[in-house]
Amino acid sequence: MKLSSKMERCGLSPMRKFNGEAAKAVERGLKIYHLNIVQPDILTPPAYFEALREHAQPVLAYSPSGGLPVLLDAVRKYYAHIGAELSRAEILPTNGGSEALQMAMASILDDGDEIVIPEPFYPNYHTSVTLAGASIRPLTTCPEEGYRYAVRERVEACINERTRAILITNPGNPTGAVLKPEELKLMLDIAKEHGLFIICDEVYREFVYAGEPLISALQFEGYEDNVIVIDSVSKRFSACGARIGMLISRNKAFMGAAMKWCQCRLAVSTMDQIASAALYDLDEHYFDATRAEYKRRRDTLLGKLRQIPGVVCEEPKGAFYVMAALPVDDADAFQHWLLNEFDDNGDTVMFACGEPFYATPGKGKNEVRMAYVLKEEDLSRAMDILAVAIERYNKR
Amino acid sequence: MKLSSKMERCGLSPMRKFNGEAAKAVERGLKIYHLNIVQPDILTPPAYFEALREHAQPVLAYSPSGGLPVLLDAVRKYYAHIGAELSRAEILPTNGGSEALQMAMASILDDGDEIVIPEPFYPNYHTSVTLAGASIRPLTTCPEEGYRYAVRERVEACINERTRAILITNPGNPTGAVLKPEELKLMLDIAKEHGLFIICDEVYREFVYAGEPLISALQFEGYEDNVIVIDSVSKRFSACGARIGMLISRNKAFMGAAMKWCQCRLAVSTMDQIASAALYDLDEHYFDATRAEYKRRRDTLLGKLRQIPGVVCEEPKGAFYVMAALPVDDADAFQHWLLNEFDDNGDTVMFACGEPFYATPGKGKNEVRMAYVLKEEDLSRAMDILAVAIERYNKR
After folding, report:
1. Tens of pLDDT, residues A85-129
2. How close B261 gets to chain A, by Cα (Å)?
3. How high does pLDDT run on average in chain B?
4. Do residue A260 and residue A299 come from a single domain?
5. Confidence at A37, pLDDT banded by 50, 70, 90
6. CA-CA 20 to 30 A from A339: which of A137, B61, B117, B341?
């Protein structure tokens, strides 16, 4: 029986593509260093679990479709602290940042519409855009330029009469690129001048390593109709399993459209909303230790990665990924070889292959994304394995 | 700025349409008996909250996109008990039954496709179908016939070359109609003969009041490619706030398409999955008391409702709704009058107006859906108010 042609144009997660081969490798006794996964090992703040334990309502009722007031107010307080005043009606709690993306795409995109996204980008954007009937117009960036994209002529060259929105990820996944305030303002200006929405995926906001103040597109005045922010507790509080994200906008018509989706799916988890609200009550310095830990991990990974001959990568300024071009012809073939024909003292390594992060066919073939969510010693060992592997692979 | 034309064709929840007027009525001192809402007052089993309290993992990690094994196995055990053997791969936990519906529609429907749904139907179906680019072909039923639809000629008259699926709700929301086993088999046969999916929304499975055994389309052999079941813990365990539903099918290609959606939104709430699994460990007689309570409520409501002159309604066999035709010209105007110009000793009543439950324009204008989720004495009082109101309304 026929399935949706839109769904058929979507793919499975590239981060999980080699899971079958990996399982077999483990069965053969191989140890794999997983740089492909994005599950942080940072402890979830105990306040989350304490809020669950202290809950005393005997009926687990639906929460309002627009979210529980206790969470809305916690999020408002957080944003007020970084200089963005929001009303409750400007925030919609979602089933993770992922649902906020689905809602945004479904609310603004029509069949045949285009959305400009700098590539490489988070591959799940493709599914949300495709299911809305639209397509991605890639704004191509490259490792040699540190994946920078905030250049007026280059952005405007991607805009045409079918363009409805621009989507930026700041800090960037997979690139780790962080926009300077004037670069973010330029992107907002371009969106406003062309009458476009600008979706700002800011779920990695706290993960910046050069002492930058926390930045959000919501801090800029004059772009109320254009700006849509995607946020989440997942990475900020190492609470990925909570599935609490947010869709935030001051555009009333847009929020009205998004509310139709909210009412269609009735509500977000009541307990996860209550417990997530407690996370926002943490001391404002809570994140300092996490940031310092990730910075050390980044420096460890990058220090060794850059010593491998032929590797091209810029220092990522944010998030917890490094995108790098490797001196191999095809990262997919290399990953296959790493899992099936290679080991270094019984060890090998996995990363996310670069091609699915691009919309332009053929791009990213020799690139990989590595997440630095492992302990320093494991990242160090993984880079040693990668160096040995590249040398041996190219001598086959 | 332009919004999605598909989203613009969707509506807000008809159950919440009069909430603004209701708030003002309450401010004026009116007491409202809410037959429009669907939040049961039955206590959530303590096992749910105990599972949350006992959780001891310090990192709240993503669960697999395909669901936590502990929940999958709990659901498998439940279905095995009612005669349907399922593998883990045939079950996908979802963010409530609502997301399972969204996933099903997005996986099988294309622009211009049609899905046959007996009307009146749960209005949120319209949003899921419309966002997938398709439209509802209504199979019209009427209160005088107890909203029955399982008649071959009538179903087949709705099928054409654009039809991709049939959606049935069993037990029915809003009608309370329950298919006999031979009627369900007829619907499955029609779907199979015409090469259609048949989506069976069975979230009210336990709510049957004539001693019927629990029925699921999954119990019938030979329809593995056609049947898609929507299920949920919300109503079964009075755990609406848990947002744990399930999409179940033995059609591998369909489940592969649905998995793309699952990976795009990464995962379902980890804690809600763990706690919901504990619900399935309850004694199999857990539901008996709940069922008896709802049966009493139905009988109380119906006994009084049928005494009101001019009301047309059949006894609902399942779920916790009564759909009824009232002797008024327009239920919307009547509801407006009830909130703004009427009271009986300071009391009034709310219901869900019937029109949004129909796809055929003009249908359902004098019908209303009433949920019997209140205590018997409140339902009784609400019916007394309704009787007085109808009499006074028609004498204006």
Report:
1. 999 999 999 999 999 999 999 999 999 999 999 999 999 999 999
2. 8
3. 95
4. no
5. confident
6. B61
CA A185/CA A170 separation, integer angstroms: 13
d(Cα B112, Cα B115) in Å, to the nearest integer? 10
Cβ–Cβ gap B3/A107 under 8 Å? yes
Please list the residues that pair with B138 across neighbouring strands: B117
For strands B244-249 and B227-232, give the pairing: antiparallel
Q: Is B62 at the interface with chain A, CB within 8 A?
A: yes
Mean pLDDT of chain A: 95
Alpha helices in B119-243 (DSSP H): 124-131, 152-156, 181-193
Residue A285 has pLDDT above 90, yes or no: no
Whether pLDDT at B241 is above 90: yes
Question: Does B3 sit within 8 Å of A108, measured CB to CB?
Answer: yes
Residue with tokens 């407006």: B336
For the stretch B200-218, pLDDT in tens is 999 999 999 999 999 999 9
Please tell me if residue B386 touches chain A, with a CB cutoff of 8 Å.
Answer: no
Q: Do A59 and B53 touch (CB under 8 A)?
A: no
Domain final residue, candidates A218, A247, A279:
A279
From chain B residues 9-38, the ones with a CB under 8 A of any chain A CB are 10-13, 16
The verdict on a CB contact (< 8 Å) between B196 and A1 is yes
With CA atoms as reference, the chain B residue closest to A239 would be B60
Instruction: State pLDDT tens for residues B56-85.
Output: 899 999 999 999 999 999 999 999 999 999
The reply to whether residue A243 touches residue B41, judged by beta carbons under 8 angstroms, is: no
Q: How many CB atoms lie within 10 A of CB A361?
A: 6
Q: Distance of alpha carbon B151 from its chain centroid, rounded?
A: 22
User: Do A265 and B95 make contact, defined as CB atoms within 8 angstroms?
Assistant: yes
Residues A50 and A79 occupy one common structural domain: yes
Q: CA-CA distance, B283 to B215, in Å (whole number)? A: 19
Q: Which residue of B lies nearest to A244 if distances are taken between CA atoms?
A: B269
Report how far residue B313's alpha carbon sits from residue B306's, in angstroms, rounded to the nearest whole number: 7
Instruction: Using pLDDT thresholds of 50, 70 and 90, give the confidence band for residue A253.
Output: very high
| CATH assignment of the domain containing A129 | 3.40.640.10
Q: How far apart are CA A309 and CA A337, in angstroms?
A: 19
Pairing of strands B163-169, B197-201: parallel
pLDDT of the residue at A124 = 95
Is B5 part of the contact surface with chain A (CB cutoff 8 Å)? yes
Domain that holds residue B364: 5-43+286-394
Q: Are residues B149 and B95 in the same domain?
A: yes
On whether both A86 and A231 belong to a single domain, the answer is yes
Residue B19 and residue B166 in one domain: no
ipTM, two decimals: 0.95
